[in-house]
Amino acid sequence: MASIELKNLRKSYGAVDVIKGVDMQIAHGEFCVFVGPSGCGKSTLLRMISGLEPITSGDIEIAGEVVNTIPAADRGLAMVFQSYALYPHMTVRQNLSFGLENINTPRAEITRKVDEVAKMLQIDMLLDRRPKDLSGGQRQRVAIGRAVVREPKVFLFDEPLSNLDAELRVDMRGEIAALHRRLGNTMIYVTHDQVEAMTMADKIAVLRLGEVEQFGAPLELYNNPRNLFVAGFIGSPKMNFIAGQVDASDRTILHLDTGESMKLPATGFRQQVGEPVTLGIRPNHMHAIEGGPVKVLVKSVEQLGGESYVYGHTSRGAPITLHSPGQTRIDFGDTVYVDAPLDEIHLFDSGSGLTLREG
Question: How far is CA 312 from CA 137, 181, 326, in A?
Answer without folding.
Answer: 38, 42, 19
